[in-house]
Amino acid sequence: MDARELERGIRNAIGAHGAWKMKLNTAIKHGHSDKSPEQLRDCTACEFGQWIGGPQFDGQIRSGKPYYVVSQLHKKFHEAAADVLEHAVKGDRAGAEKLMETEFKQRSEVLKRALMKWDGEARAGKI
After folding, report:
1. Which tens digit of pLDDT belongs to each residue from 101-123?
2. Fewer beta carbons under 10 A from the terminal one: N or C of the chain?
3. CA separation (Å) from 20 to 44, 69, 74, 127?
C-alpha cells in the first residue's frame, strides 16, 4: 500500500467517525437510531473497520505499532459510541450527554490524533 492510499483511508476514517458525533447527538435528541448499540459496538462493521482489516495491509504493516495502536483506539471509539447510544435509546439523555462530553470525546480525539500521526509517518516514508 502506498502513502496516498493510506492517506485516503485515514482521511475517510476521520470524516466518517466525525459524522458519528452528529448521529449520536441526533440519537440523544430523539431517543432512537437506525443502529443498535450492539451493531455500533462492532468495529469491523464500519467502512474503516473493513478497510483496516482488509487484505491491502501486509504483515509488516499489521505488525507495526501504528497499525496496532489505531486498531485498538478504533475499537475503543466504537465502545464509547455504543455506550452513548445505549443511554440515548434507553431515554437517559443526561447520561448520554455526559458520555458524549467525556469518554466519547476523549476517545474520538485520541483516535483522530493517532490517525493523523500514522498518516504523517506514512508520508515521511517511516512506514
Report:
1. 999 999 999 999 999 999 888 87
2. N
3. 15, 21, 13, 29
